[in-house]
Design goal:
Distance between the termini: 76 Å
Largest sheet: 9 strands, mixed
Helix content: 40-55%
Strand content: 15-25%
Order of helices and strands: HHHEEHEHHEHEEEHEHEHEEH
CATH class of the largest domain: Alpha Beta
CATH architecture of the largest domain: 3-Layer(aba) Sandwich
Shape: rod-shaped
Amino acid sequence: MKNELNVKALRGFHAIVETGSVTLAASILGMTQPALSRLLAQLEASIGFELFFRDHGRLVPTQDALLMFDEVDRSLNTLERVSSVVRDISEYRRGHLKLVAPPSFAEAVLPDIVTAFVASYPTVRLTVESPGADAAMSMIANRGVDGGFLRLPVGRAELHAETIVTSDTVCVLSAHNPLAGRPQLTPTLLRGQSLIMLGQGTMSRAGIEAAFAREGVRPATQIEAHTVASGCAFAARGLGVALVNGLLAAGYLRPGLVARPFLPQLVNEYAFVTSALSRPTRLADAFLRHARQHFAQMEDGADATRVGLASV
């Protein structure tokens, strides 16, 4: 064989064997009859033997052609399956997106973004895990997942972080608490109040405790909670005032439970994080576009209060 086999020529050969006619095969393939005849001649020259002989004007495949046809048929079917997979991947009809996010973020924020993403890419699989922050950063850096949402700062050179949303810390408390009538709450006003705190040992918790220290107030922490959902649930039962991220708390507010801005202002920043060691996957880019659009709509609309752009 002088040259590599031409896939287009093999398709032509396959069509001629099936139809018994160069003219009909050319029509099926969207070619002219002379163009297909040239392809066939080139294929025969390449492989070194004849594929057809004429019998009363009909093209009849040789014995060698019949031996070749079955393998060409299987190969073209396989190639079509590969082409179909490539089209599915290219058009986002196939794939598996793996993300990480803190538990409260995954519960309170991601569902709206995931709903929009799944509506656009209904056949893409999605996995969302909520490991600890250090484990999440390692999973992203090592490309065990495509990306995820993390609270800033990240502080690792092997990670690329794009700030996606910011929100203020708020106080969530029962509407029956006398402090619910205040437009905003400070450490001084919270003196002696039973507090519900999250994230012991984290920078956000350190920021809250530093704010109390600056006003000379010792926080009366009664309940340590792991998630914003549990902190709000405790507050709803009158067990104390929960100091939490306003963005994450918004999904858990219900009648009888209110949120008031905490002063001094403490800003929580979240970023969409990917590995800096390689380009983000196409699915990660698509998900990030949906996330940007979601938060842009929140900022433009009445939901701006959810991200600390107005009083909560």
